[in-house]
Amino acid sequence: MANRRMFSKTITNSSRFLRMPDTSRLLYYDLGMNADDDGYCEWYGIIQMTGLVEQDLQVLSANNFIQIFDDKVLIIKEWKENNYLRPDRYNESKYKKIYPQTESGIPLVYQNPTSGIH
């Protein structure tokens, strides 16, 4: 996983982003800083570290910034607009096969390893 992350002003200066509560916007940055090279993130630990609440996560989801897969993993939907990694620096996510996405970074219907296709 990279040690540096970027955030696109196209996203963070948009009215869709700026209309969210400060806490939801802060959570977006924290999720982005802790996501892997494909934009997947284990969100529960981030919530605990920041002292934010799951409602902030739901705001991000309702505004289409993230997709929550389950009680563990989410993906940042506009990941590729925020971050580009050179191929020689890229490390494939361990979640990519469980929660596949299209080339544009949009998650596909995924298969949960315990309960089949959703």
Q: Report mean pLDDT, rounded to a whole number.
A: 85
Distance between the termini: 28 Å
Q: What class do helices, strands and sheet pairing give?
A: alpha+beta
The number of strands is: 5
Morphology call: globular
Percent helix: 25-40%
Strand content: 5-15%
In DSSP terms (H or I, runs of 4 or more residues), the helix count works out at 6
Which consecutive residue ranges, at least 5 long each, have pLDDT under 50?
109-118
The spatial strand order of the largest sheet comes to 1-3-2
The main sheet comes to: 3 strands, antiparallel
State Rg.
Answer: 14 Å
- Compressed to H and E, one letter per element, the order equals HHHEHHEEHEE
Walk me through this protein's architecture.
The chain is an alpha+beta fold. The protein is 36% helix and 12% strand. The chain has helices at residues 9-12, 15-18, 22-34, 43-50, 54-62, 79-82, and strands at residues 40-42, 66-68, 73-76, 111-112, 116-117. The strands form 2 sheets. A 3-stranded antiparallel β-sheet has the order 1-3-2. A two-stranded antiparallel sheet has the order 4-5. Helix 3 (22-34) packs across helix 4 (43-50). The model is unreliable at 109-118 (pLDDT under 50).
How does the SSE layout of this entry go?
Layout: H1 9-12, H2 15-18, H3 22-34, E1 40-42, H4 43-50, H5 54-62, E2 66-68, E3 73-76, H6 79-82, E4 111-112, E5 116-117
Antiparallel strand pairs: 1-3, 2-3, 4-5
